[in-house]
Write a structure and sequence with these properties.
Blueprint (H helix, E strand, L loop, with lengths): L9 H13 L7 H4 L5 E5 L17 E5 L17 E5 L17 E3 L19 E3 L19 E3 L20 E3 L8 H5 L9 E3 L16 H8 L5 E2 L2 E2 L3 H66 L34 H5 L3 H53 L4 E5 L5 H12 L11 E14 H14 L5 H9 L1 E6 L8 H7 L4 H6 L6 E4 L2 H17 L14 E10 L3 E3 L16 E5 L27 E5 L5 E13 L6 H8 L6 H11 L16 H8 L9 E3 L19 E3 L19 E3 L19 E3 L8 H11 L5 E3 L11 H8 L5 E2 L2 E2 L2 H12 L5 H7 E2 L13 H8 L20 E3 L19 E3 L19 E3 L19 E3 L10 H4 L7 E3 L19 E3 L22 E3 L4 H5 L3 H8 L5 E2 L2 E2 L2 H11 L2 E3 H8 L9 E3 L7 E3 L11 E3 L19 E3 L20 H6 L14 H6 L14 E3 L21 E3 L19 E3 L21 E3 L19 E3 L9 H4 L9 E3 L11 H8 L5 E2 L2 E2 L2 H12 ...
Parallel strand pairs: 1-2, 2-3, 3-4, 4-5, 5-6, 6-7, 7-8, 8-9, 16-17, 20-21, 21-22, 22-23, 23-24, 24-25, 28-29, 29-30, 30-31, 31-32, 32-33, 33-34, 34-35, 37-39, 38-40, 40-41, 41-42, 42-43, 43-44, 44-45, 45-46, 46-47, 47-48
Antiparallel strand pairs: 9-10, 11-12, 12-19, 13-15, 14-18, 15-19, 17-18, 25-26, 27-28, 35-36, 48-49, 50-51, 51-53, 52-53
Helix pairs in contact: 4-5, 5-7, 7-15, 17-18, 18-19, 24-25, 30-31
């Protein structure tokens, strides 16, 4: 048997024998039975080489464990092999599998494999285990599209890369025990659609560094929502996925808000630069205008010289200028050229002066260019910083907070230390050659990178021999803080902050030294950047002074560096680790004489710096892991003044520093002979004037016409000048050029220095070659260029400078794209390359098939990404166009488009979009679109952006019901159209910043809204905040830049109070302290906005009656008072008011009900700050709260009716203050309400009647249910016209000091403590008393009291609610006559009477009739529940009194009637009284 085989080494036979023995196969029968064997196993030893497999051609499974195999071989005889285990061996590569094409499972773990390769043919492979090897890169798996399980644990993989993208079937992936540090690497796994299990932190392996970072789980679950298991934990729960989704969404909203804040800050910086630019341009523009006017005047005079002795000036080539506004005159023009013609040398004088003026114009124009260059440079710097901020924020978001960039301020200790470090390493002597004298630190950013910090610390821990104190001291001594400035040609700052410095191998691949250069000297570090900036400036053709100091602004990275074992640098040897064996770094001392780019050292610096006395050294560190970037410092070099243009120094000083010599030189130039005489301005034209100006005899012969420096607005008369070729109308007052049309021979037109707003009207100028429209007010380049393109086909030279163009950066290309015949634009020759570029740009300005193919994508889902980009931008960047070159298009290719990004394509109209029926994400930013149209077929749109266009209406969006994100920043919207917004039921994001919106009306229709950005608009009223109150889900609101923000006091907490769901406002998070402050200040505050919210309208002037009961109101602020000029009655019962100062300025308030509040005074009393509560201190900040009003001293209160206090609420007649807990009437300051007629104070804690001195008009006073024990002498001194007094339910024992109440008709004293009938005798001082009630007193418990009272008070008509009849009075008088004189003294005995008292509140008998009685005081009849109005009593008062009675007693509405004498009766009854008095349906009998 063995002889039939090829000759083999005897050891191979032994190996085969052991293989057979281990698997129970007979060696003798192996040739016969070997083909039937399907599985072989070999464990631990005895199989050093893979031999003898040729005997097993049918083998399907082979398992080899713990052998010394170094290579896979012999499998070419096993084509049916499906499962192979070669584990715990010594394999160094994957090989020998090329014939095993049916292989499905491959286990090669615990070997020495360094690279994944030679698996391209195994397309059926479903499982691959390569864990515990030496693999550093994921590759070689592109063809394994059936692969479902991959184990790469415990290798040396740092980056995942894109090696797994083709493995779309991958379900289980194990990457634990590797060196993956970045979340960005994990993000690529979201492209595996079938991935269900992921392991990065296995219990049996060391976790990846990324697993130690915060928010690791959240990041994974957000990017891979279909994951079922993570690190062997079940994460399939819906709650877990939703929590991760919610956290990610909140993070994205927060960072998007911060990005918008950065953009807003840039806008503010730009506006500030524009203002400074305007200030700097003011003088140069003024001088240019004056000089240009003089130049053009000379050109006009020169043109009037005889043709034989003049030379034609080149007029269009010169810089335009402006006139000094000469005096207006009559149309008759003085001949200013008479002297000119007579002087034969005048032409030379004019030419000489013109040349001098041009030199001055050149100088001032250069000043304009300097200012413009300064503006562009600073704007570019601000823009770059904004871009850095945005990139920093994106980095923070994508790292889920593990990279954080903290901007420092002077209060931070680390900020101060960092500044001191940089200043100590700056030496002015090193920069003398560039005129740099000092350095200014602008910003310091602290870098928090958790991954880099963990790597740095782990590296040091592994390097240190021990953890004793000595080792620690040595380690600390080898740490340095060093500077690094990035290569100016390759921007790498962000990469360093995120991933750290490049490795030595990566540096060599880029052509650099194999070490990272750092230094403790700023000049050494910054040398390359400065030299590069100077080289760039030297190549600049313009050579503006502003560009020679372009290196002034820079940034430096401050890193913590472990220099370790450092060797000195050796000349001639490469900076490579191999050249310095055992060294961690190399250093060299840098001396001034060894630095080529530095100037020779000066003997003394401008200021002393510590660096001057220390060793400047440069290090080269080999291992990038020993460098930890910690700070990023932005700085600016300060240069000598002589290096700065005067305009820049003007900015630094904040004032104009133009040398006076320049203006003197201008004036001298203007005074050079000839000095032209002032010419009267023409206001209109006629044929005679035209002939005079043109010095012609016939109109048809005029070829040159100069109308410079007049006040013309219309020139219709020139339409007859068919031979005109040269026309100058500069320095006039034209706003349009409608009259300049159909001049067939016109070749030259100068219309500079006018007020042109459009070029529409330039018709039929087919021969026009030169046009000057500079220094006008043109804004729309596209429209004006279209006019020129159509009506001036021969135009060669155009000057359109110094106009306020919209999007000025695009004006030149816009003009060149349409006017292809131009040779000169703005005085600059048009290059062929520039013209071609403009034409190409114009080709993309329309939406065509080519633009759709280039800018459209067909992705069906939004990528799971934390990038701060819209979906359209994200897919456009991440995905390639699906239509390759030369590929044939499907008939319905447009129907597959889901994404369209047409930003900055100069598009003016939306066309050719009707077939994009599947479009979901679209962006049209930075175009010239004025109308939203053409989207009616794109009904699936979810995100849409039209930023920076010219859109003025939302019409055209109403059919897009699926929209959830809409952005229209930088447009011309005047409002939020509610009819459109209500058609967007899914809109959760709306941005309309920088528009012209004046109101938030309409936003309440967007209920699902989460984010609203509406800053930099024209919203000015606080009422607009109420439109937002219906947005219960609103989390982020930005109103910054609206007038409302500045006008509204306590704006921020006002908005926070009304929008309780808000989490961020104007770019800053809403904290708890703001919420508490808002509650304290605005909770219960009655404002005009509150009224509008309650009533549902803002027609405040139509409101006459306002009732807001039980609304928890504690402050009134109805201002301005003019809004409520017609408000008459106010009911604020059952609230929390302590004063009503917010009502005192309302002019027509007559009735005010404040029952069941906590009223202390009309105006709150002054309290010292030490006694004020936190809430009261907040109230004091509100102007209308009344705090801060000085309480009048007691001497003032006693001195007169109102003391020194002014009268308030002169129209108020009825005031309800019941149940307010009032204890001191004087504190109420009621004397200031001088027109008050009814005052109701029942149910309080009043013990003394006082403070009524100023109420001379008071008719009714209610003090029931208080704690009054007696009446003071000054209680009623001013109430001489009081008609009704209620004192029931008090503690009165004596009835003193009632004598001032000479007009009192009704007195209610029930439920007091009157005991002696003698007290009733004191009521004789009330001559007009008609009704008295003493029910519930001790004196009324004896039935004999009634006849006594009737006899004592002869004028009384009603006692205790029962009318005193004539019969009762007669009986009392008769009985009194029978009593002996000895007993006829007060209080001797009570009179007896036969009057039956049915109860405490007897009613008038049904058959009683009203008797006409003559009663002094004007009242005809007084009875319980009936008020009879005499003609001389204020009817309004009784109307409000009846209103009070209904509210106080709970009665039904009053019933009114008219007596026979014409007096009106108002009757009010309770339901019980009505039933008993009027059994006939409760209706009173006819009056």
């Amino acid at each position: 048997m063995w002889q039939s085989e090829e000759q083999k080494d005897p050891t191979d036979e032994q190996v085969v024998q052991k293989l057979c023995t281990a698997n129970g196969v007979s060696c003798e029968r192996i040739t016969k039975e070997g083909s039937t064997i399907r599985s072989l196993e070999m464990f631990f030893s005895g199989f050093p080489r893979m031999v003898g497999l040729s005997f097993f051609p049918g083998l399907c499974q082979l398992t080899i464990v713990d052998q010394k195999i170094e290579h896979i071989e012999g499998l070419e005889y096993c084509p049916l092999l499906q499962e192979l285990w070669v584990v715990q061996c010594q394999l160094t590569e994957i090989s020998g599998l090329q014939n095993c094409l049916q292989l499905e499972k491959l286990y090669l773990y615990e070997n020495r494999i360094c690279e994944i390769k030679n698996l391209e043919l195994h397309v059926n492979l479903e499982l691959l285990w390569l864990n515990n090897n030496c693999i550093t890169k994921i590759q070689g798996l592109n063809t394994l599209q059936k692969l479902k399980e991959l184990n790469l644990a415990d290798n040396n993989i740092e980056k995942i890369g894109h090696g797994l993208h083709p493995n779309a079937s991958l379900q289980n992936l194990n990457l634990s025990g590797n060196k993956i540090r970045s979340f960005k690497e994990l993000t690529v796994l979201s492209n595996l659609p079938c991935l269900r299990e992921l392991v990065l932190k296995d219990r049996m392996s060391t976790p990846n560094p990324v697993c130690l970072l915060c928010n690791y789980d959240t990041h994974i679950l957000y990017h891979m929502p279909d994951l079922q298991r993570l690190d062997n934990y079940d994460v399939s729960s819906r709650q877990v996925k939703e929590a991760a989704e919610s956290a990610a969404m909140k993070k994205m909203m927060y960072y998007n808000m911060r990005v918008r804040t950065a953009q807003r800050n840039l806008t503010e910086t730009q506006m500030s630069l524009i203002e400074k630019k305007k200030a700097l341009l003011q003088l140069p523009e003024e001088r240019i205008r004056i000089l240009s006017h003089a130049l053009k005047s000379l050109e006009r005079e020169l043109s009037m010289l005889p043709d034989s002795c003049k030379r034609p000036p080149c007029m269009l080539e010169e810089k335009p200028a402006a006139p000094p506004h000469p005096e207006e005159g009559s149309p008759k023009r003085s001949d200013s050229t008479t002297d000119v013609i007579q002087d034969p040398a005048m032409e030379q004088k004019i030419l000489f002066k013109m040349e001098a003026l041009r030199e001055r114009l050149t100088l001032w124009t250069k000043r304009l260019d300097e200012v413009e260059a300064w503006y562009k440079q600073n704007l570019a710097l601000a823009t770059n910083r904004k871009e850095y901020v945005v990139q920093f924020l994106s980095m923070e978001l994508e790292s889920v907070g593990n990279i954080r960039l903290e901007e420092g301020c002077s209060t931070d200790l680390w900020f101060t230390s960092c500044c001191n470090l940089l200043l100590s390493c700056f030496s002015p002597s090193d920069y003398k050659i560039w005129g740099i004298t000092d350095i200014k630190i602008e910003r310091v950013i602290r870098i928090h990178n958790s991954a880099l910090k963990l790597r740095f610390e782990d590296k040091l821990l592994r390097l240190l021999p021990g953890r004793d104190s000595v080792s620690h001291r040595n380690y600390r001594s080898q740490l340095e803080y060093l500077f690094y400035i990035t290569d100016p040609e390759k921007e790498e700052t962000l990469c360093i902050l995120e991933e750290g410095f490049k490795t030595a191998e990566q540096l060599k691949a880029l052509g650099r030294e194999g070490a990272i250069p750092l230094s403790n000297s700023l000049s050494v570090t910054d040398q390359c950047r400065i030299e590069y900036a100077l080289r760039q400036a030297s190549h600049d053709d313009s050579k503006q002074n502003a560009n020679t100091i372009s290196f002034r602004s820079g940034q430096v990275i401050v890193s913590k560096v472990f220099v370790g074992k450092s060797m000195p640098f050796r000349d001639g040897e490469p900076l490579d680790r191999s050249s310095y064996d055992g060294a961690n770094s190399v250093y060299r001392n840098v001396d001034t004489k060894h630095r080529s780019a530095m100037c020779e050292a000066s003997s003394q610096s401008i200021r002393t710096h510590p660096e001057d006395n220390t060793c400047r050294r440069q290090w080269f560190v080999f291992d990038h892991e020993f460098i930890l970037p910690e700070y990023l410092i932005y700085f600016e070099y300060i240069t000598e003044d002589k290096k700065q243009p005067h305009t820049l120094s003007s900015l630094c000083t904040g004032r104009d520093t133009t040398p006076p010599d320049e203006i003197i030189l201008d004036n001298s130039t203007l005074n050079i002979e000839p000095v032209l005489k002032p010419v009267p301005k023409l206001l209109s034209l006629n044929d005679k004037i035209l002939l005079n100006v043109a010095r012609a005899n016939v109109l048809c012969m005029i070829t040159v016409l100069n109308l410079h420096g007049n006040s013309l607005r219309k020139i219709k008369e020139i339409s007859s000048l068919l031979a005109l070729r040269h026309l100058t109308i500069s320095f006039n007052e034209f706003t349009r050029l409608d009259d300049i049309c159909h001049l067939p021979k016109l070749e030259f037109l100068d219309s500079s220095y006018n007020h042109l707003v459009t070029l529409k009207g330039l018709w039929g100028l087919k021969r026009l070659k030169q046009l000057n429209v500079c220094w006008n007010k043109l804004t729309k380049a596209r429209d004006d260029t279209a006019v020129l393109c159509k009506h001036t086909p021969a135009l060669l030279k155009l000057d359109a400078r110094y106009n306020p163009w919209e999007k000025p950066e695009a004006v030149r290309m816009t003009i060149l794209a349409r006017l292809t015949s131009l040779t000169h634009l703005d005085g600059v020759l048009v290059a062929e390359e520039e013209a071609a570029e403009a034409v190409q740009m114009a080709a993309w300005s329309k939406i065509t098939q080519a633009s759709l193919l280039a800018h459209a994508r067909t992705n069906s889902d939004r990528p799971r990404s934390l990038r701060l980009l819209s979906t359209a931008h994200l897919l456009y960047r991440l995905s390639a166009a699906p239509w390759g070159p030369g590929r044939e298009l499907d008939p319905d290719w447009t129907a597959k488009i889901t994404t369209l990004n047409l930003d900055n394509q100069n598009i003016s109209k939306l066309i050719n979009l009707d077939k994009l029926v599947s479009l979901r994400w679209a962006s049209f930013n930075d175009n010239s679109i004025s109308k939203v149209e053409g989207l009616s077929s794109c009904l699936k749109l979810e995100e849409l952006s039209f930023n920076n266009n010219s859109i003025s209406t939302l019409k055209g969006l109403a059919k897009l019901h699926c929209l959830n994100k809409l952005s229209l920043d930088g447009n011309l919207l005047p409002d939020l159209d509610p009819s459109v917004l209500e058609q967007m039921p899914n809109l959760c994001f709306l941005s309309v910043e920088n528009n012209r919106i004046t109101s938030l009306y309409g936003i309440h229709r967007v209920r699902p809204l989460l984010e609203l950005y509406i800053g930099s608009n024209l919203i000015s009223t606080s009422r607009d905040i109420y439109y937002l109150k219906g947005l219960a889900n609103l989390l982020i609101l930005d109103l910054y830049g609206n007038p409302l923000v500045e006008k509204l006091e306590n704006y921020r907490i006002y908005v926070v109070f009304h929008l309780s769901s808000l989490k961020a406002l104007d770019g800053y998070a809403v904290d708890k302290s703001e919420c508490e402050s808002a509650k304290h200040m605005f909770k219960g505050r009655l404002t005009a906005d509150t009224v509008a919210e309650k009533l549902g309208h803002t027609n405040y002037k139509d409101i006459t009656y306002l009732t807001l009961q039980s609304c928890s109101i504690r402050m009134i602020d109805l201002s301005p008072a003019e809004l409520f000029c017609n408000l008459c009655r106010v009911n604020l019962d059952h609230n929390n008011l302590t004063s009503f100062s917010g009502l005192i300025y309302l002019p027509k308030i007559k009735a005010l009900s404040l029952n069941y509040n906590h009223i202390e005074s009309i105006l709150p009393r002054q309290r010292t700050q030490t006694h004020l509560t936190h809430r009261q201190i907040l109230y004091s900040k509100v102007h209308s709260s009344g705090y801060g009003q000085q309480r009048p001293p007691k001497s003032n209160r006693d001195a007169g009716p109102t003391g020194s206090l002014e009268t308030l609420m002169e129209s108020l007649e009825v005031l309800h203050l019941s149940h307010n807990g009032i204890s001191n009437m004087a504190n109420l300051q009621l004397s200031r309400l001088t027109n008050l007629k009814a005052l109701l104070l029942q149910g309080n804690e009043i013990s003394q009647v006082e403070g009524l001195e100023g109420l001379h008009q008071l008719r009714e006073l209610v003090l029931d249910k208080n704690r009054i024990k007696g009446l003071a002498k000054n209680s009623f001194t001013a109430q001489t016209v009081l008609l009704e007094l209620h004192l029931a339910g008090n503690r009165i024992r004596e009835l003193n000091h009632l004598n001032p109440l000479i007009m009192l008709h009704k007195l209610f004293l029930g439920m007091n403590k009157l005991q002696d009938i003698a007290e009733l005798d004191k009521l004789k001082v009330l001559p007009s008393l008609k009704e008295l009630s003493i029910v519930g007193n001790l004196v009324a418990q004896n039935s004999r009291h009634r006849p006594t009272v009737v006899l004592l008070l002869s004028q009384l008509q009603i006692l205790d609610g029962v009318m005193i009849t004539l019969e009762e009075r007669t009986r009392a008088e008769l009985r009194a006559a029978d009593i002996p004189p000895s007993s006829q003294h007060p209080g001797a005995s009570l009179l007896t009477t036969e009057v039956n008292l049915p109860g405490l509140l007897p009613l008038v008998p049904h058959n009683s009739t009203l008797r006409g009685m003559s009663i002094s005081g004007g009242l005809q009849n007084l009875m319980h529940g009936h008020d009879i109005l005499p003609s001389n009593v204020d009817e309004d008062f009784y109307t409000y009194k009846s209103f009070r009675h209904v509210r106080r007693t709970g009665s039904t509405l009053p019933t009114t009637g008219v007596l026979s004498d014409g007096n009106r009766v108002i009757m009010t009854f309770t339901k019980q009284q009505q039933d008993s008095r009027f059994p006939n349906g409760g209706k009173p009998p006819p009056m």
